[in-house]
Amino acid sequence: VDGRMPGEAHPAFTVGGLVAAGGLVGFLQKGSRGSLIGGTALGAGFIGAGLLIQKGEGFYGHSLASGCALSLAGMFGSKFLKTRALFPAGLFAFMGLASLAFHGKKAVEW
């Protein structure tokens, strides 16, 4: 046994891809450099976390993903409270909270 729990990296890779894609869409539709930079940075953080988890570094990977998720939830949560827009603010705030719940729980388990 190599210490890895199967499938735990998938949520980090999925959220990372969605966040990076969302940043690209924000840039292409609105010309928002902040969306591009933020989406790329957070997406890379989630993907890096997935790679750590895949390597068996579960605590570090889940901790990194938790930090990224907290940032995502915080940024989009405040936008959602201001605009009440379900997309993109509500969706990404929910993804951040769900990811934080999952990865936070898994980091504590390691």
Characteristic key phrases:
mainly alpha
How would you explain this protein's 3D organization?
The protein starts with 9 loop residues before the first helix and ends with a helix. Helices cover 85% and strands 0% of the residues. The protein has helices at 10-30, 33-54, 58-83, 86-109. It is mostly helical and 110 residues long. α1 packs antiparallel against α2 (33-54).
Summarize the helices and strands and which ones pair or pack.
Blueprint: H1 10-30, H2 33-54, H3 58-83, H4 86-109
Helix pairs in contact: 1-2, 1-4, 2-3, 3-4
Give a short synopsis of this structure:
By secondary structure, the chain is mainly alpha-helical.
Radius of gyration equals: 14 Å
Helical content stands at over 70%
Give the percentage of residues in beta strands.
under 5%
Topology pattern, helix = H, strand = E: HHHH
How many strands in all?
Answer: 0
Mean pLDDT: 94
- Structural class determined from secondary elements: mainly alpha
List segments where confidence is low: pLDDT < 50 over at least 5 consecutive residues: none
Terminal CA distance reads 15 Å
Largest sheet: none
Number of helical stretches of at least 4 residues:
4
Backbone shape: globular
